[in-house]
Specification:
- The chain is of the alpha/beta class and about 425 residues long.
- It folds into 2 domains: about 150 residues, FAD/NAD(P)-binding domain (3-Layer(bba) Sandwich); about 180 residues, D-Amino Acid Oxidase, subunit A, domain 2 (D-Amino Acid Oxidase, Chain A, domain 2, 2-Layer Sandwich), CATH 3.30.9.
- It has 10 helices and 20 strands.
- Strands 4, 5, 6, 7, 14, 15, 16, 17 and 18 form a 9-stranded mixed beta sheet that branches. It has a 6-stranded mixed beta sheet with strand order 9-2-1-13-20-19, covered by helices on one side.
- Helix 1 runs parallel beside helix 7, helix 1 runs parallel beside helix 10 and helix 4 crosses helix 10.
- It is globular and about 65 Å long.
- It starts with a strand and ends in a 15-residue tail after the last helix.
- The relative contact order is 0.22.
- Bound molecules: flavin-adenine dinucleotide.
- The site of flavin-adenine dinucleotide has 42 residues, from helix 1, strand 2, strand 14, strand 18 and helix 10.
């Protein structure tokens, strides 16, 4: 039996560990924190957004970004760093901000989203993953700008009967009555049926439990990976703070930290932290939370009811790998949320969180070969790591098994 070490126990590492164990590998999960979902997977937006996958890099975004930067409550923050990674990442991001590039990548990510959806359904069955708070309420993307909404609505309407529907604001309120209390100047929305929400951290905890009952799982080892031992172009062991751990294969799934770890063997990963915030507020009987999953397009805020809590996530801050909560940013998010859904939850009791999205300039994860034999990549999931993890785990496990990817990987590999 071949042995595989997966580095990182966020949602990507856990799903990968399961996919490998199911394919007959003995699997060890290496995690520096000793517990699962301590990184970006902890309190993210909870959206399983299989169809709403268009990357941030798009035509017109550089101009919008300038406007956002001038708005104290805007969704974007930028703090220049004296590090080449930030500037190199931004140059590549600007290069990706072209209509044809965005459309090509959106097509790829739609395929990945559909495959991930299918993979999640299979995982639920195979791992008996009875996720308590999982719901499929669909996603409503609401617009404040009439011109922007008209453009998107025309495209959706031209496609005819499909999974997306353009709705007037009155139709949005009929679908989601919580919008009736909103002070936000929404003009309409696009509804996609089938999109789901769940608590990513709970999914991770449940997956660890199922792995611990899997005959091929060798355990969660608490240690920080610090490099690799290479022999004849192949990885033979991972170096940890407690010594060497040898295996036949290694999968790097350490989120943002994958960049530094890969660099130790000369592999350059174009990953940069996009910092975001979330609030998790309790819902009581008197509250009127949204039932469908709502995305406020211009403010870049997502709302998901997860059990008896409202999870709100937002913001894209290019401020380096700084996980601290900036009081001004979280206060801005609170103001925005209170104006948009004033009666949805008890915001005074909300738990505040900040996390770092491990993002590539194109918005696509990097999967498969690393250039070092036996060292595989499952990294760079950015804003949609929860959504894509189920699919990317199967893809990488197939490649480690010596088979071909179930979907076309053009644009999803290290170039
Ligand atoms: C505000 C916010 C909202 C989001 N909303 C959504 C959403 O609604 N839907 C969605 O699909 N995605 C969302 N995301 C993105 C998603 O959370 C991430 O893409 C995903 O969690 C990345 O998972 P990961 O396993 O790659 O990384 P992580 O969850 O960060 O896990 C990496 C793990 O590796 C460990 N590690 C790091 N270095 C080492 C080392 N040297 N040795 C051993 N272990 C190591 C870390 O401790 C960590 O546990 C959001 C992210 C943020 C920040």
């Amino acid at each position: 039996m071949q042995h595989c070490v997966v580095i990182g126990a966020g949602v990507v590492g856990l799903t990968t560990a399961w996919a490998l164990a199911e394919r007959g590998f003995a699997v060890t999960l290496l995690e520096r924190a000793g517990e699962v979902a301590g990184g970006a997977s902890q309190a993210n937006g909870g959206q399983l957004s299989y169809r709403y996958v268009s990357p941030l890099a798009d035509e017109g975004v550089p101009l919008k970004a300038l406007r956002w930067l001038l708005d104290a409550d805007g969704p974007l923050r930028f703090k220049p760093e004296l590090r080449w990674q930030q500037w190199a990442w931004m140059i590549d991001f600007l290069r990706a901000c072209r209509g044809p590039v965005n459309r090509r990548m959106t097509g790829r990510l739609l395929d990945l989203g559909a495959y991930s959806h299918q993979s999640f359904s299979a995982l639920q069955q195979d791992a008996r993953l009875d996720v308590v708070d999982l719901r499929e309420p669909g996603k409503l993307v609401v617009y404040r700008n009439q011109q922007e909404f008209a453009r998107v609505a025309a495209r959706v309407t031209a496609l005819g009967a499909g999974p997306e529907q353009a709705l007037s604001f009155e139709q949005c309120v009929a679908l989601e009555p919580a919008l009736a209390f909103s002070a936000a100047p929404f003009v309409g929305g696009i509804f996609s049926a089938g999109e789901a929400v769940a608590d990513c951290r709970k999914v991770c905890e449940l997956l660890l439990l199922r792995l611990q009952g899997h005959g091929n799982f060798r355990g969660l080892v608490q240690a920080s990976a610090e490099g690799f031992i290479l022999r004849a172009g192949a990885a033979v062991a991972v170096l940890t703070e407690h010594g060497e751990l040898s295996a036949d294969h290694f999968v790097l799934a350490a989120g943002l930290q994958s960049r530094a770890l890969a660099l130790k063997t000369g592999i350059k990963l174009p990953i940069y932290p996009l910092k975001g915030y979330s609030l998790t507020a309790p819902i009581a009987a008197e509250h009127r939370p949204p039932v469908v999953s709502v995305t406020d397009f211009e403010k870049k805020v997502v709302y998901a009811r997860i059990g008896e809590q409202l999870r709100v996530a937002a913001m894209v801050d290019l401020v380096g790998a700084d996980e601290r909560i900036d009081p001004a940013r979280i206060a801005s998010l609170r103001r925005n949320v209170q104006a948009t859904f004033p009666r949805a939850a008890d915001y005074a009791q909300a738990i505040e969180w900040a996390g770092l999205r491990p993002a590539t300039p194109s918005g696509a994860p990097i999967l498969g070969a690393s250039g070092v034999r036996n060292l595989w990549l499952n990294v760079g999931h950015g804003a949609l790591g929860f959504t894509f993890s189920f699919g990317t785990a199967n893809i990488v496990a197939e490649l480690v098994s010596g088979r071909v990817s179930p979907i076309d990987l053009a644009g999803l590999q290290l170039s």
